[in-house]
Amino acid sequence: MDLGFQKACAELKRIREEGVRDSERVVDLWCDCVSRYTNRLGDEKWALYEQVFISALDCGRLEAADACLVQLSRQFPNSQRIRRYEAMRLEAEDNLDAATEIYKKMYETDKLDSLSRKRLVAVLKARGRSVEAIKELTSYLKDFCTDFEAWLELSELYLNECDYKKAAFCMEELILSNPHHHLYHQRYAEIKYTEGTTESMELAKSYFAQAVRLNPNNMRALFGLLLAAGNCASSTNKSSTSASRRESARLAQWAAAQVAERYRAAGSKAAKFTTSNSSNSSDAASSDVATLALQLSLCCSPTAAAGDASSPSQGQQQPASNPPML
Amino acid sequence: MSQFLVEPLAVAKIVLHACKYPHTAVNGVLLAEKPSPDSSNSSSKPIVICNTVPLFHSNLNLAPMLEAALMQIEATYKNYAIVGYYQANELLNDASPEGVGAHIYQKIAENCPLPRSLYILVDNKAIDRKCSTIPLIYYQRKEAGQSQKLERLPNSAVAIDDEEDCLETLANLLVRQAYRSLVDFDNHLDDIGLDWTNSRLAEQIRN
């Protein structure tokens, strides 16, 4: 690790601000470039100690974590935050009973201490007690219903239990609070797709389309739209009309063209900057995917399913930059 | 005679994938060469698992991206078949192959063109930098009966090609933090310029 002190601090600051989980890198940067020169840091020092402490716990580098905790405890004696860090240190040693005791006492002293309550959920999760973790988190959300991070975590806990309806409910709460966040629409659509019923597939198609509208570069939403619209187009369910199947087929073809376009762009970008061998493979890979996407969308033609006389010649239009109106 | 022979590239990619995301579950599929149409009595020879494709490190139980990934894999690796599945569980002490992973594996096993399929579970506790043992546990679905439960295979059923060399290579890769350059399908969906076939990493491992 040959980064200078300034560059290392800048990198650590970027990781801190973006909220990226790259604990090993943080601890390596700290140990190799920064820890010997803490006198050069201003007040940023304390935020850095916190960041390194948590990252060190995350990758089991307990000696580095202890060094940071000592500095923080000296600077901020009798601090609830430091007490919580001491409990997290116990968690890292797998001393979950002692950690739980501390979190419970902190919560009893201050009913508004949301972070200790969330750590209790984390401890339950670490013990593998998912059902109790869900119960604890649900009761937390009754008191702190705008905590988006908690709703997302609850959705994941429900997914681990394969309770798709409740996981979807959590995403609905998030979409209601953040209707312009493309990732929430995309995740909701993925859950609906996984449920697998005809109605949920239609919903998945709509939400994938909305995610694409909010962020046209969301590849998961594009792939999801292609697959969901394809499933809707070839649905043999009585409730789907031939008009709706044609519409779904058009949507699938549009999504396929978008996917193909992005892979072609990525392939040609890779070709400019790499050696000839890998550019051949990335070109081949991107053209494979482009072909695959178009083949998939052509399979979604409703004429085969419905025996309809009118051919889907509208599908030959140039793809617009927005998805067709649903 | 072992039922499977796993090549070092496959072992390395599985362990590197688990090491890249130690805080979440990861999964992927196992690849073997498709048998040629005229090969006879292939069920007695060990199936050679020559490569893997690392798939996801988040939301392993959502279907659409899994379907998209499997279609891309089949389109890209035309001479190879998906013969199995691997998973590393989220919790250190969780050594259970059941759950979503088992469902995905059953689907793979049903569609596998080869006579047998394999489920590899990473033994989280056995991963260490010294690489003294191969940290993998093997399962297979019972062919007989309707139960389709997973049955643990003895280590003798799965051989590692050139095991000592494989362990040494693995140790070197972990020291060099080679897992940082591994690309799984989730990474690819975040940035489609990233190569989910990991061809550069494969060259490094083979040399």
From TrEMBL, chain A:
InterPro entries: EMC2-like, TPR-like_helical_dom_sf, TPR_EMC2, TPR_rpt. SUPFAM superfamilies: TPR-like. Keywords: Endoplasmic reticulum, Membrane, Repeat, TPR repeat. Belongs to the EMC2 family. The keyword rRNA-binding does not apply. Component of the ER membrane protein complex (EMC). The lineage of its organism: Eukaryota, Metazoa, Spiralia, Lophotrochozoa, Platyhelminthes. It comes from the Eukaryota. It comes from Macrostomum lignano. The keyword Electron transport does not apply. Part of the endoplasmic reticulum membrane protein complex (EMC) that enables the energy-independent insertion into endoplasmic reticulum membranes of newly synthesized membrane proteins. Residues 303-326 are annotated as: Disordered. Gene3D superfamilies: Tetratricopeptide repeat domain (1.25.40.10). It is found in: Endoplasmic reticulum membrane. Residues 83-194 form the EMC2 TPR-like domain. This is ER membrane protein complex subunit 2. It is a peripheral membrane protein. Residues 304-320 have a biased composition (Low complexity). One of its GO terms (cellular component) is EMC complex.
TrEMBL record, chain B:
CDD domains: MPN_UPF0172 (cd08060). It comes from the Eukaryota. InterPro entries: EMC8/9, MPN. GO terms for cellular component: EMC complex. Residues 4-142 form the MPN domain. Pfam families: UPF0172. Belongs to the EMC8/EMC9 family. PANTHER family: ER MEMBRANE PROTEIN COMPLEX, ER MEMBRANE PROTEIN COMPLEX SUBUNIT 8_9 HOMOLOG. This is MPN domain-containing protein. It comes from Macrostomum lignano.
